[in-house]
Amino acid sequence: MKAIIIDDEPLARMMVKEYLQSYPHIIVAEECNDGFEGMKAIQHHQPDLIFLDIQMPKINGFEMLELIGHPPQVIFTTAFEEYAIKAFDAHAADYLLKPFSKERFDKAMQKLTLQRVNATQAVVDMAMQTAAPSNRVVVKDNGKIKIIPVAQVQYLEAADDYVKIITADGSFLKKKTMQYFEDSLPPQEFIRIHRSYIINASLITRIDLHEKDSHLVLLTTGARLPVSKAGYIKLKEVLGI
C-alpha cells in the first residue's frame, strides 16, 4: 500500500513516518511540502492513501483535492481546530488534530479497513461547505493552476455539469454546482439572482423591470442578466431596498 505525506512542517511529516513504522505494509512513496508538490506526487505515484495537512503555502489541502478530481483515501492532519467537523467521524476518512498521539493515529488507521473510496469526496464537500466562506477560487486553465480572488469574479453562470466563472481576464470552467458556490462564496458579496446566475453585488449598477413580474440586473461590466422572483427578493434583502 503506497502512501504520500503532504505537510509543510518537517516535524509533522517525521511524526507520521515514525507512526507508520508499525505498519510495514504501507510504504511512504514521497513526502511533499505543499499542495503543488502533492498534486505532482499523486499523479506520479497513484497512492492508495495520503496524509494531508490543510493550511499550507500556495494552495490548501481542500483546494488540492478539488483539483485532483478523484483523490485517494485521505487522513487529514492539521493544527487548526476550526476545521474539525463532526461529519468526518461518519465517513472512512479521518481527521487528526496536531499534535496527535500514536493511539489516535492507530484508530485512524483502523478505519482504513472500512473505508470506501467515494467517501473522500463527500467529506471534502462537507468540509468546504462548513468552513468559512472562501476568498478565492482555484481552477485549472490549459493545464495550469490559476487562483482567482473572489473580488475579481464578476458573475458565475451554470453550464451543464460545470460552472462558468466570469472575470475581466476571461471565463473559466469548474466542475462544481451552483449550489456549491452559493454556499461557499461570501453571502453578502455574491447573490444568487437566478438558478443559472450568481453575481458580484459590488458590480450592480441598475435593476430594470423586464416584461411582467421579471427583472434584469445591469453590471458595471455591461452584462445584463435575468433575475428570478426569488432572486429579486434576495437582491432587495442584500441591497436594503
Short description:
With 241 residues, this protein is α/β, with parallel strands linked by helices. The protein contains seven helices and 15 strands.
Please give a structural write-up.
The chain is of the alpha/beta class. It has 2 domains: 2-130, Response regulator (Rossmann fold), CATH 3.40.50; 148-239, OB fold (Dihydrolipoamide Acetyltransferase, E2P) (Beta Barrel), CATH 2.40.50. It has 7 helices and 15 strands. The protein has helices spanning 10-19, 35-45, 61-68, 102-111, 119-130, 178-184, 229-239; strands spanning 2-6, 27-32, 49-53, 73-78, 94-97, 136-141, 144-149, 153-159, 162-167, 170-174, 190-194, 197-200, 204-209, 215-219, 224-227. The radius of gyration is 21 Å and the shape is elongated. The model is unreliable at 86-92 (pLDDT under 50).
Q: Can you summarize the main beta sheet?
A: 5 strands, parallel
What is the multimeric organization of the chains shown?
single chain
The first-level CATH class of the largest domain is given as Alpha Beta
CATH hierarchy: architecture of the largest domain: 3-Layer(aba) Sandwich
In N-to-C order, the SSE pattern is EHEHEHEEHHEEEEEHEEEEEH
Class computed from helices, strands and strand pairing:
alpha/beta
What does the radius of gyration come to?
Answer: 21 Å
How is the CATH topology of the largest domain named? Rossmann fold
Please give the share of residues in helix. Answer: 25-40%
| Uncertain stretches of 5 or more adjacent residues | 86-92
CATH superfamily of the largest domain: Response regulator
Mean pLDDT metric: 85
